[in-house]
Specification:
M1 Pyruvate Kinase, Domain 3, Pyruvate Kinase, Chain: A, domain 1, 3 domains, TIM Barrel
Length: 481
């Protein structure tokens, strides 16, 4: 099985997609990566889903990536004496640490770290920004506010604090437990929620101990401001537009998305665009035109992946949602304008031998009749650099390391193939030629480009490129050894 598109599709699993038949149908419809949302469901439920994904992988013979999305710190108000209260614009309202049930003029906010960071003029957003308040006065145990946008506030609604960097660890105690559980289970990616600073990512990396790649979710203004530093210490990023659209003015989200996608592309690190991509398909078998356009925009920008959340996890039409996203991707990538946009936005800082090798591979492939660029890799680093170039031909990643192949399922344009370890470059070329033919990328008479590093099986040694036929007999006959 091979995909006929470059962008990857991430599908979240949940109540609507927790059995083998549905997970396999999602994969066959186009899902490349499955997301386990640790905010919902028990660890036993997530373990069962993980096992089913690996069973689909074994039955289809194709690597599949699994991403565990950690919940992150959740800030919520306390409870009300009557379960809710109506807030009117212009009225005063107090948040404090008193656990007494709230009324129309106050409620408990059981997070002293919020009060420690607040300053007059800061905003507090409740229930995804539907209710907005401005801080007039504050102290270590209270915040007196003016209601700027009213509404009904009810028990345990979420709170966003967009204007300050909170002295909160990105990993709660639950997250630490879920991180260890996910790593022991064998996920390939860990998504870190509510990142504010690069130290949040390095903390998660220390706890993961190399067992999973770290993906930073960008959903706070502070993360946008520190994006360069966060990207430098992350293996990939997610533009998580849900909370980003709550904490930032909504009209600023599209340019932020474009800027972050381009920066991640230039760094050669995978970037996912997520949240509300086909949200109407939670209830409808058809998306809106605006949603289709939204997905298309992310693909035109060159995002590595687009993600489905509730559409595939809890919606009525999970397989249709994946199939729709797949169809949009095929349509966009067949548009001549797509290549124009991708190539016009290509920018990379090339400083190493590996940078030069992958740039040469793309240029050779695009100026001659080359069918694929094939990379023999241990860690996937060279493959990521090739994908950064966004070549016009498919990328085939060959590796003896299953975790590397899983991780690369998130990377733009990459088709992953398991192979044995090799000691000679000639055998890497032979494996590449066989894979290109087996998966329908080329025929025996066609040519491919092969990159690898000598000595073999050593990280960071990409230093060789060869144009070769897809007939292994010709390769072996030309071997000087």
């Amino acid at each position: 099985m091979r995909r006929l598109r470059n962008v990857k599709i991430v599908a979240t699993l949940g109540p609507s997609s927790s059995d083998y038949a549905t997970i396999r149908a999602l994969f066959e419809a186009g899902a490349d990566v499955f997301r386990l949302n640790m905010s919902h469901g028990t660890q036993d439920e997530q373990r069962a889903r993980h096992g089913l994904i690996r069973q689909v992988e074994a039955d289809t013979g194709r690597p599949i990536a699994i991403l565990a999305d950690l919940q992150g710190p959740k800030l919520r108000v306390g409870v009300f004496a009557s379960g809710a209260a109506d807030l009117e614009e212009g009225d005063p309202f107090r948040f404090d640490l008193d656990p007494t049930p709230g009324e129309g003029h106050r409620v408990c906010l059981p997070h002293p770290e919020i009060f420690a960071a607040l300053t007059p003029g800061a905003r507090l957003l409740v229930n995804d920004g539907k209710i907005r308040l401005k801080v007039e006065d504050c102290g270590p145990d209270f915040a007196d506010c003016i209601i700027t946008t009213g509404g009904t506030i009810s028990d345990r609604k979420g709170v966003n604090v967009p204007d300050v960097v909170l002295p909160l660890a990105a990993l709660s105690q639950k997250d630490r437990s879920d991180l260890e559980f996910a790593c022991e289970m064998g996920v390939d990616w860990l998504a870190l929620s509510f990142v504010q600073r690069p130290e949040d990512v390095t903390e998660a990396r220390t706890l993961a101990k190399g067992r999973a790649a770290i993906l930073a979710k960008i959903e706070k203004p502070s993360a946008v401001d520190a994006f360069g530093e966060i990207l430098a210490v992350s293996d990939g990023v997610m533009v998580a537009r849900g909370d980003l659209g709550v904490e930032c003015p909504v009209h600023t989200v599209p340019p932020v998305q474009k800027r972050l996608v381009r920066a991640a592309r230039a760094a050669g690190k995978p970037v996912i665009v997520a949240t509300q991509m086909l949200e109407s398909m939670i209830e409808s078998p058809m998306p809106t035109r605006a949603e289709v356009s939204d997905v298309a925009t992310a693909i035109y920008e060159g995002a590595d992946a687009v993600m489905l959340s509730a559409e595939s996890a809890a919606g009525r039409y999970p397989v249709d949602a994946v199939a729709t996203m797949n169809a949009v991707a095929l349509s966009v990538e067949s548009d001549p304008t797509y290549r124009e946009v991708i190539e016009a936005s290509r920018r990379a800082d090339r400083r190493t031998v590996a940078d030069a090798i992958v740039a040469a591979a793309r240029e050779i492939a695009e100026t001659t009749d080359i069918k694929a660029i094939c990379c023999y890799t241990q860690t996937g680093g060279t493959v990521s650099l090739v994908a950064r170039e966004r070549p016009r031909v498919p990328i085939i990643a060959l590796s003896p390391v299953p975790q590397t192949l899983h991780k690369l399922c998130l990377t733009w344009g990459v088709h992953t193939v398991r192979c044995d370890e090799v000691e000679r470059f000639t055998m890497a070329v032979v494996n590449a030629a066989l894979a290109a033919r087996e998966f329908g990328f080329a025929k025996a008479k066609d040519m491919i480009v092969v990159t690898a590093g000598v000595p073999f099986n050593v990280q960071g040694t990409t230093n060789i490129l060869r144009v070769a036929p897809c007939d292994e007999r010709l390769i072996l006959s030309a071997d000087p050894e």
